[in-house]
Amino acid sequence: MEDFVAGWIGGATSVIVGHPMDTVKVTGFFKGMSFPLTSFAVYSSVVFGVFSNTQKFLTQYRYEESNSSSSLSDLFLASMMSGVVSVGLGGPMDLVKIRLQMQTEPFLKANLHSKPRSKDLWNRPMYQGPIHCMTSIVQKEGLVGLYRGANAMLLRDVPGYCLYFIPYEIISEWITPDNDTTSNPYTVWLAGGIAGAISWGTATPMDVVKSRLQADGVYNNKYKGVMDCISQSYQKEGFKVFFKGFTVNTIRGFPMSATMFLGYELSLQILKGNQTVTNP
Protein backbone atom coordinates (compact mmCIF):
# COMPACT_ATOMS: atom_id res chain seq x y z
CA MET A 1 0.00 0.00 0.00
CA GLU A 2 2.87 2.38 0.81
CA ASP A 3 4.15 2.04 -2.76
CA PHE A 4 0.87 3.31 -4.21
CA VAL A 5 0.69 6.27 -1.81
CA ALA A 6 4.33 7.19 -2.44
CA GLY A 7 3.73 6.92 -6.18
CA TRP A 8 0.77 9.29 -5.87
CA ILE A 9 2.90 11.85 -4.02
CA GLY A 10 5.74 11.52 -6.51
CA GLY A 11 3.35 11.90 -9.41
CA ALA A 12 1.75 15.04 -8.01
CA THR A 13 5.08 16.77 -7.46
CA SER A 14 6.41 15.78 -10.88
CA VAL A 15 3.39 17.28 -12.66
CA ILE A 16 4.08 20.67 -11.08
CA VAL A 17 7.63 20.52 -12.41
CA GLY A 18 6.99 18.95 -15.80
CA HIS A 19 3.60 20.24 -16.93
CA PRO A 20 4.73 23.67 -18.20
CA MET A 21 7.31 22.08 -20.52
CA ASP A 22 4.82 19.41 -21.57
CA THR A 23 2.33 22.01 -22.76
CA VAL A 24 5.03 23.89 -24.70
CA LYS A 25 4.60 21.21 -27.38
CA VAL A 26 0.98 22.21 -27.83
CA THR A 27 0.01 25.59 -26.33
CA GLY A 28 0.37 27.75 -23.21
CA PHE A 29 2.44 26.83 -20.14
CA PHE A 30 -0.24 26.00 -17.55
CA LYS A 31 -3.23 25.30 -19.78
CA GLY A 32 -5.10 22.25 -18.47
CA MET A 33 -3.00 22.09 -15.29
CA SER A 34 -5.72 20.93 -12.89
CA PHE A 35 -6.61 17.76 -14.80
CA PRO A 36 -3.08 16.31 -15.13
CA LEU A 37 -2.32 17.27 -11.53
CA THR A 38 -5.08 15.02 -10.26
CA SER A 39 -5.06 12.32 -12.93
CA PHE A 40 -1.30 11.85 -13.27
CA ALA A 41 -0.96 11.47 -9.51
CA VAL A 42 -3.35 8.52 -9.61
CA TYR A 43 -1.64 7.21 -12.75
CA SER A 44 1.81 7.35 -11.12
CA SER A 45 0.47 5.71 -7.99
CA VAL A 46 -0.70 2.71 -9.98
CA VAL A 47 2.40 2.49 -12.20
CA PHE A 48 4.89 2.65 -9.32
CA GLY A 49 2.71 0.39 -7.19
CA VAL A 50 2.45 -2.23 -9.94
CA PHE A 51 6.17 -2.07 -10.68
CA SER A 52 7.20 -2.37 -7.02
CA ASN A 53 4.79 -5.17 -6.17
CA THR A 54 5.51 -7.12 -9.37
CA GLN A 55 9.22 -6.81 -8.64
CA LYS A 56 8.73 -8.03 -5.07
CA PHE A 57 6.55 -10.92 -6.21
CA LEU A 58 9.06 -12.07 -8.82
CA THR A 59 11.96 -11.78 -6.39
CA GLN A 60 10.14 -13.68 -3.67
CA TYR A 61 8.96 -16.32 -6.15
CA ARG A 62 12.49 -16.90 -7.44
CA TYR A 63 14.44 -16.68 -4.22
CA GLU A 64 11.72 -17.13 -1.56
CA GLU A 65 13.06 -13.99 0.11
CA SER A 66 11.33 -10.60 -0.19
CA ASN A 67 14.51 -8.64 0.59
CA SER A 68 16.73 -10.23 -2.06
CA SER A 69 18.09 -8.11 -4.90
CA SER A 70 16.10 -8.21 -8.12
CA SER A 71 17.68 -9.67 -11.22
CA LEU A 72 17.72 -7.83 -14.53
CA SER A 73 15.02 -10.14 -15.85
CA ASP A 74 12.82 -9.32 -12.84
CA LEU A 75 13.25 -5.59 -13.48
CA PHE A 76 12.50 -6.11 -17.15
CA LEU A 77 9.27 -8.04 -16.50
CA ALA A 78 8.12 -5.61 -13.81
CA SER A 79 8.79 -2.68 -16.15
CA MET A 80 6.84 -4.33 -18.97
CA MET A 81 3.92 -4.96 -16.63
CA SER A 82 3.95 -1.29 -15.61
CA GLY A 83 3.90 -0.29 -19.28
CA VAL A 84 0.87 -2.46 -20.03
CA VAL A 85 -1.04 -1.22 -16.99
CA SER A 86 -0.13 2.37 -17.80
CA VAL A 87 -2.00 2.14 -21.12
CA GLY A 88 -5.14 0.70 -19.56
CA LEU A 89 -5.34 3.49 -17.00
CA GLY A 90 -3.44 6.29 -18.66
CA GLY A 91 -4.82 6.02 -22.20
CA PRO A 92 -8.08 7.89 -21.50
CA MET A 93 -6.30 10.39 -19.23
CA ASP A 94 -3.69 11.14 -21.87
CA LEU A 95 -6.35 11.46 -24.55
CA VAL A 96 -8.33 14.01 -22.56
CA LYS A 97 -5.15 15.95 -21.72
CA ILE A 98 -4.15 16.12 -25.40
CA ARG A 99 -7.63 17.17 -26.50
CA LEU A 100 -7.82 19.94 -23.89
CA GLN A 101 -4.32 21.21 -24.63
CA MET A 102 -4.87 21.38 -28.38
CA GLN A 103 -7.90 23.67 -28.17
CA THR A 104 -6.26 26.60 -29.87
CA GLU A 105 -8.74 26.51 -32.79
CA PRO A 106 -12.41 27.46 -32.46
CA PHE A 107 -14.99 24.75 -32.93
CA LEU A 108 -16.24 25.69 -36.39
CA LYS A 109 -13.16 27.22 -37.97
CA ALA A 110 -11.71 23.81 -38.85
CA ASN A 111 -15.04 22.31 -39.82
CA LEU A 112 -15.38 23.46 -43.41
CA HIS A 113 -18.60 21.53 -43.95
CA SER A 114 -20.57 23.08 -41.09
CA LYS A 115 -23.58 25.18 -41.87
CA PRO A 116 -23.29 28.89 -41.05
CA ARG A 117 -24.21 29.62 -37.47
CA SER A 118 -24.10 32.53 -35.06
CA LYS A 119 -20.79 34.35 -34.86
CA ASP A 120 -20.14 33.51 -31.20
CA LEU A 121 -19.83 29.80 -32.02
CA TRP A 122 -16.69 30.50 -34.02
CA ASN A 123 -14.86 31.23 -30.79
CA ARG A 124 -16.33 28.37 -28.79
CA PRO A 125 -13.89 25.56 -27.89
CA MET A 126 -14.77 21.98 -28.69
CA TYR A 127 -14.63 20.88 -25.05
CA GLN A 128 -15.62 22.81 -21.94
CA GLY A 129 -13.55 20.73 -19.52
CA PRO A 130 -12.26 17.20 -18.75
CA ILE A 131 -15.67 15.70 -17.97
CA HIS A 132 -17.29 17.26 -21.02
CA CYS A 133 -14.38 16.08 -23.16
CA MET A 134 -14.69 12.52 -21.89
CA THR A 135 -18.46 12.33 -22.24
CA SER A 136 -18.30 13.87 -25.73
CA ILE A 137 -15.83 11.22 -26.87
CA VAL A 138 -17.96 8.41 -25.42
CA GLN A 139 -21.13 9.79 -27.04
CA LYS A 140 -19.43 10.13 -30.41
CA GLU A 141 -17.23 7.02 -30.50
CA GLY A 142 -18.27 4.83 -27.58
CA LEU A 143 -15.99 3.62 -24.79
CA VAL A 144 -13.47 2.44 -27.37
CA GLY A 145 -12.98 6.07 -28.34
CA LEU A 146 -11.29 6.72 -25.00
CA TYR A 147 -8.50 4.40 -26.15
CA ARG A 148 -7.73 6.14 -29.41
CA GLY A 149 -3.98 5.83 -29.91
CA ALA A 150 -3.71 3.05 -27.32
CA ASN A 151 -1.66 0.82 -29.66
CA ALA A 152 0.88 3.57 -30.16
CA MET A 153 0.90 4.27 -26.44
CA LEU A 154 1.56 0.58 -25.77
CA LEU A 155 4.48 0.64 -28.21
CA ARG A 156 5.76 3.74 -26.45
CA ASP A 157 5.25 2.77 -22.79
CA VAL A 158 6.33 -0.88 -22.65
CA PRO A 159 9.89 -0.20 -23.89
CA GLY A 160 9.67 3.28 -22.34
CA TYR A 161 9.24 1.97 -18.81
CA CYS A 162 12.00 -0.60 -19.37
CA LEU A 163 14.26 2.35 -20.22
CA TYR A 164 12.92 4.18 -17.16
CA PHE A 165 13.12 1.80 -14.23
CA ILE A 166 16.12 -0.27 -15.33
CA PRO A 167 18.50 2.69 -15.93
CA TYR A 168 17.36 4.12 -12.61
CA GLU A 169 18.29 0.93 -10.80
CA ILE A 170 21.62 0.57 -12.60
CA ILE A 171 22.66 4.21 -12.16
CA SER A 172 21.56 4.25 -8.51
CA GLU A 173 23.67 1.19 -7.77
CA TRP A 174 26.60 2.57 -9.74
CA ILE A 175 26.82 5.96 -8.01
CA THR A 176 25.90 4.77 -4.51
CA PRO A 177 28.97 4.17 -2.28
CA ASP A 178 29.49 0.55 -1.25
CA ASN A 179 29.14 1.37 2.44
CA ASP A 180 25.93 3.37 1.97
CA THR A 181 22.85 1.26 2.75
CA THR A 182 20.23 4.02 2.53
CA SER A 183 18.84 6.03 -0.34
CA ASN A 184 20.74 9.29 -0.70
CA PRO A 185 18.47 12.12 -1.97
CA TYR A 186 21.09 13.36 -4.41
CA THR A 187 21.62 9.83 -5.79
CA VAL A 188 17.87 9.34 -6.21
CA TRP A 189 17.49 12.76 -7.86
CA LEU A 190 20.39 12.25 -10.29
CA ALA A 191 19.55 8.65 -11.20
CA GLY A 192 15.87 9.49 -11.63
CA GLY A 193 16.66 12.48 -13.82
CA ILE A 194 19.01 10.58 -16.11
CA ALA A 195 16.55 7.68 -16.39
CA GLY A 196 13.77 10.11 -17.29
CA ALA A 197 15.86 11.82 -19.96
CA ILE A 198 16.76 8.45 -21.50
CA SER A 199 13.20 7.16 -21.40
CA TRP A 200 11.47 10.24 -22.80
CA GLY A 201 14.14 10.88 -25.40
CA THR A 202 13.92 7.38 -26.88
CA ALA A 203 10.12 7.40 -26.64
CA THR A 204 9.79 10.54 -28.79
CA PRO A 205 9.06 8.86 -32.17
CA MET A 206 6.16 6.81 -30.86
CA ASP A 207 5.04 9.71 -28.67
CA VAL A 208 4.64 11.77 -31.84
CA VAL A 209 2.50 9.05 -33.40
CA LYS A 210 0.44 8.61 -30.23
CA SER A 211 -0.24 12.33 -29.90
CA ARG A 212 -1.29 12.63 -33.54
CA LEU A 213 -3.68 9.71 -33.24
CA GLN A 214 -5.18 11.13 -30.04
CA ALA A 215 -5.56 14.61 -31.53
CA ASP A 216 -7.14 13.09 -34.63
CA GLY A 217 -10.92 12.95 -34.62
CA VAL A 218 -11.67 16.31 -33.04
CA TYR A 219 -12.59 17.83 -36.38
CA ASN A 220 -11.63 15.21 -38.97
CA ASN A 221 -10.33 11.64 -39.06
CA LYS A 222 -7.04 11.54 -40.94
CA TYR A 223 -5.46 8.30 -39.76
CA LYS A 224 -6.65 4.69 -39.90
CA GLY A 225 -4.16 3.42 -37.35
CA VAL A 226 -0.55 3.42 -36.18
CA MET A 227 1.01 2.35 -39.47
CA ASP A 228 -1.14 4.74 -41.49
CA CYS A 229 -0.16 7.60 -39.20
CA ILE A 230 3.52 6.70 -39.54
CA SER A 231 3.21 6.43 -43.32
CA GLN A 232 1.32 9.71 -43.80
CA SER A 233 3.58 11.60 -41.42
CA TYR A 234 6.71 10.34 -43.16
CA GLN A 235 5.40 11.07 -46.64
CA LYS A 236 4.39 14.63 -45.77
CA GLU A 237 7.17 15.69 -43.39
CA GLY A 238 10.00 13.22 -43.72
CA PHE A 239 11.87 11.20 -41.12
CA LYS A 240 12.55 14.23 -38.94
CA VAL A 241 8.87 14.44 -38.02
CA PHE A 242 9.32 11.54 -35.58
CA PHE A 243 11.78 13.57 -33.55
CA LYS A 244 9.60 16.63 -33.10
CA GLY A 245 9.79 17.55 -29.46
CA PHE A 246 12.88 15.40 -28.84
CA THR A 247 14.75 18.22 -27.14
CA VAL A 248 11.76 19.26 -25.04
CA ASN A 249 11.02 15.64 -24.07
CA THR A 250 14.61 14.97 -23.05
CA ILE A 251 15.03 18.20 -21.11
CA ARG A 252 11.63 17.87 -19.47
CA GLY A 253 12.27 14.23 -18.65
CA PHE A 254 15.16 15.05 -16.32
CA PRO A 255 13.53 17.38 -13.74
CA MET A 256 10.16 15.66 -13.97
CA SER A 257 11.54 12.18 -13.34
CA ALA A 258 14.09 13.41 -10.80
CA THR A 259 11.22 14.93 -8.82
CA MET A 260 9.10 11.83 -9.31
CA PHE A 261 11.68 9.40 -7.94
CA LEU A 262 12.77 11.73 -5.16
CA GLY A 263 9.19 12.30 -4.03
CA TYR A 264 8.51 8.58 -4.24
CA GLU A 265 11.58 7.46 -2.31
CA LEU A 266 11.31 10.07 0.44
CA SER A 267 7.58 9.45 0.86
CA LEU A 268 8.18 5.71 1.00
CA GLN A 269 10.81 6.12 3.71
CA ILE A 270 8.46 8.26 5.78
CA LEU A 271 5.52 5.90 5.31
CA LYS A 272 7.64 2.90 6.28
CA GLY A 273 9.07 4.63 9.30
CA ASN A 274 12.43 5.61 7.79
CA GLN A 275 13.29 2.04 6.91
CA THR A 276 15.98 1.50 4.30
CA VAL A 277 14.60 1.95 0.80
CA THR A 278 16.74 0.85 -2.11
CA ASN A 279 14.25 0.06 -4.87
CA PRO A 280 11.08 1.73 -6.18
TrEMBL record:
Subcellular locations according to the entry: Mitochondrion inner membrane
A single Gene Ontology CC term: mitochondrial inner membrane
InterPro entries: MCP_dom_sf, MCP_transmembrane, Mitochondrial_Carrier
Record keywords: Membrane, Mitochondrion, Mitochondrion inner membrane, Repeat, Transmembrane, Transmembrane helix, Transport
Solcar repeats: 70-174, 183-270
Main location: mitochondrion
GO function term, MF aspect, one: transmembrane transporter activity
Bilayer topology: Multi-pass membrane protein
Organism domain of life: Eukaryota
Any one Pfam family match given in the protein's UniProt record, by short name: Mito_carr
Family note: Belongs to the mitochondrial carrier (TC 2.A.29) family.
Name of protein: Solute carrier family 25 member 48
Organism: Vombatus ursinus (Common wombat)
Species lineage: Eukaryota, Metazoa, Chordata, Craniata, Vertebrata
